[in-house]
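ESCALATION

Customer reports they have been waiting on this structure for their group meeting. Please prioritize. Original submission:
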Amino acid sequence: MAKAAKETPMMQQYWRYREEIPEDALLLFRLGDFYEMFHGDAEEGARLLGITLTKRSNYPMAGIPYHAKDSYLPKLLAAGKKVAIVDQIETPQPGKLVKRALTQILTPGTLLEENQLDAHKNHYLLALTSTKKGFHAAWLDLSTGDFQLASDEDPRRLLPIFNAIDPREIVLPETISPGWAHREDLQDWHEQFDRFCLEHPVTYVPDYQFEGEDGARVVIQTLGVHNLAGFGLDKSHPALGAAGALVTYATDNLCSTPQNLRRIREYRSGGTLLLDPATMRNLEVFKSAQGTRKGSLLGAMDRTVTAAGARLLEQWLAAPILDLEELSRRQLSVQAFMEAPGVAAQLQESLKQVRDIARILGRLQNRLRNPRELGGVRDTLDQLPSIREYLSKLDADSPAAALREAVGSFDELRSFLSVSLNDELPGNLSDGGIVRNGFDAELDRLRGLTTDNKTWISDLERGEQEKTGIKNLKVKYNGAFGYFIEVTKSNLGNVPEHYIRRQTMVNAERFVTEELRQKEKEIVHAEEKALAREEELFKEVVERILEESDALAATGLALAEIDLFVGWAQLAREWDYCRPELDEGDLLDIKQGRHPVVEQMLKADLRGFATTQSFVPNDTRLSASEEQIGLITGPNMAGKSTFIRQVSLIALMAQVGSWVPAASCKLGLVDRVFSRVGASDELARGNSTFMVEMNETANILNNATARSLIILDEIGRGTSTYDGLSIAWAVIEFLHGEGEEGPRTLFATHYHEITQLERTLPRLRNYSVSVKEWADEIRFLHTVVEGAADRSYGIQVARLAGLPDKVIGRARTILSELEAEGNTLQQSLREPSSPPKPSKSPKARRKSPPPETDEPGGGQLDLF
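Update from on-call: job pushed to the front of the queue and completed.
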């Protein structure tokens, strides 16, 4: 943007702020009743907002009304723009340049206003750096004050939590790429993180902001503590550089230090169940394949009625834990509400009246103060006595009953807010009407003056009508002229001589009198004084609330947990879930397990009508040391993929503390869940479906442990039959290994030859999804049974899909020829008019001797 050779004082002021803010931010500059944009900002802002672009002194400008700012800002933010706001900080005076200040820079990760946030989702800002000691990260939700850090020598253990928290913005040092781009052992990580950054807004800041010692100092000062020992951290923790960079970035954009940061926690990957990005995507944990909450595990598990409860569910799903004691606390809390459905229903009704305390406190602490949010605190406190009473009815030995002690009573604060605030509160402080009459004597006196003066105005209007005989004479007010007397032109002959003309209209004249001028000064003065007094009282109320901010935040967290546990109890009752038994063993034993999402979706179709379908439950038994690998065969559409996914989802639900969709479940804790159940092409990155499949499979084989749970679906399908079969065979042998245990694995495949591995791998078991066949038709029973499938039923499935009869007939012919002569599909296609003949090539596929047993799959062509 080019400056003019000679700028006005106001534009000089504008340019000073324009140079302070990031180049990629739009500047909204308060000018009277509008926020104006100039030059390039005006052109881009007008385009994004669909507003008029004008010119002033030969430079472009565009503006929005200041009172409508909140309706325009979301459009700019949704377009990926950062927005800097310069406000007037004094009342304008004629002939004097008004003082202005940069009050906030809005970026994707530093938003606080209610209309800028999704109430049911966490809103994290993530920072990452690397040193010789490893990789160091920190993430912060400014709206709630949730602040965490982590370090790891292997960044692949950090990527799962990055994907789970799904940050709204990433902050990186300017020279971060050279720090790991050239490490060959991290090439896969680099590619995954590169993709992650492409999916999120990234901001680069100077490297020195990530310096460890300065970071520790910034964090300690912001938290208001002498050291970090109370949080289990040492000031030399390598991730404090990233944490300090986050605080500095937030401070720069809020234009003040964040005031709602009270604690910082260390995330340890070793204490959580990890899910890599592919697994989260394949299992549809947070989003369905269509990118929506509906159809995801998160959507299926969410029965919360508060925004804080929904965010807590998201947090727990992002980091399932390995702590048996905490998992037991959560399970028993759900059980308490299961056993007291009446109490749960009463609690849920009270919770519906609770506001989002964490985010309200975040805004109040960071100078964003909407009077209605004080009412939100008051309305929440009004629900606490009944919530505490309902909790007291639970079994005293239950962990849920202990939540009563975590919910504060706040009797004095509740009473104070009740007597100080009006029932209905305005959205803006300048509108007045916040403080209840009778609370403050001085405010009542000033309001009385205003009321008395306005009564005087009404009396003046009636008196002037009688004196002049002008029946339609009116005393009016507007912002430009203040109070005036309006007389229609037909009555101008009756206007007294002491009336002073102010303005001529088309059909009327406006006048003032000296008496009216004096009264106007009294009224305006009284109103200004009343608003000023009310603002003082408003600040006192805010400070009174913030004195209890830590206790209020703790109560808000307890309410979120109650909401989540009550919702899970409702879910368990509605869908007949069981409480899983968790231990440190290696057994996974599920009786009558169901897919939590599919089961719910089967109950009603998209039109809302009930269906007759019901989910077919299945048993699963795996252990690292005995029944380690379950090899599942069966036709497409039979339910193999649904079955293996449901096992993973049940394990995931169990390790966040929920009950699970099964008749019974015993689970030895899982450290990682891996899933390879389909991939899409990444042509823009030069990766085919098969390459994506192999990348994900390599990640599993390189990182799985004996405590992991693996589900694999159709490994090797993306390449030729022989290559795919060979890879699938070798993957199973590798997972089984030669030791005494291995990762618990479910492997679904169409390669029936692999079922013969049951003979040589002692920890592998064959299973199949049963079908019923008659008259060349099949019916899917969706039941998993022991033993391998005898064939794939591919032609029958093709017929169900609607392939032409001619194609189906030809396919049957080819299949019978292949089964009879052991030839290849390629030979059949090359000579379609005659049966394929065996190849004489020494490299041709040979039949193995017939199997000695009559076990399923024994009649299949055997490559090995």
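Sent to customer with the following note: Confidence is low (pLDDT under 50) at residues 680-686, 823-864.
Escalation resolved.
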